[in-house]
From TrEMBL:
It comes from the Bacteria. Residues 1-91 form the MOSC domain. InterPro entries: MoCF_Sase_C (IPR005302), MOSC_domain (IPR052716), Pyrv_Knase-like_insert_dom_sf (IPR011037). SUPFAM superfamilies: PK beta-barrel domain-like. This is MOSC domain-containing protein. PANTHER family: METAL-SULFUR CLUSTER BIOSYNTHESIS PROTEINS YUAD-RELATED, MOSC DOMAIN-CONTAINING PROTEIN. Pfam families: MOSC.
C-alpha cells in the first residue's frame, strides 16, 4: 500500500485523534489550522486497496457499538505548507465536548 492510497492527507503520530472532541483545532506547522468535524466512515471499496482492510479499520466495543478507526475528517481553516516532522498543537473546544460522529 502506498502513502495517500486510502485518501489520507496528513498522517500523525502520538495523537489519539479518534477520541478528540468535535471542533478541536489542530494547528500544524507554522500557519495551518484544521477543525475536526467527525470520524471517517470507510466503505467496502477500501478492500480493493488491500483485502481485509475494512475489517482492520472497524471494531466493536464491549457493548457491541461500532468503532471506526479509519481516521478523522476536518475542514481547513487556514492553509499553508505542511512538512514531515511539523509540530501539531491540539486546541480543545470549550466544554461540554461533543464526541465525534461519522461523517
Amino acid at each position: 500500500m502506498e502513502d495517500g492510497q486510502m485518501g489520507e492527507n496528513i498522517t500523525t503520530q502520538g495523537i489519539d485523534l479518534l477520541n478528540l472532541p468535535e471542533n478541536t483545532i489542530l494547528s500544524v506547522g507554522t500557519t495551518s489550522k484544521i477543525k475536526i468535524t467527525g470520524l471517517r466512515n470507510p466503505c467496502n471499496q477500501i478492500d480493493s486497496i488491500q483485502k481485509g482492510l475494512m475489517n482492520a479499520v472497524l471494531d466493536k466495543d464491549q457493548k457491541g457499538n461500532l468503532i471506526r478507526k479509519a481516521g478523522i475528517m476536518g475542514i481547513v481553516l487556514n492553509g499553508g505548507e505542511i512538512k514531515t516532522g511539523d509540530e501539531i498543537i491540539v486546541e480543545l473546544p470549550p466544554e461540554p465536548h461533543a464526541k465525534l460522529k461519522k461523517v
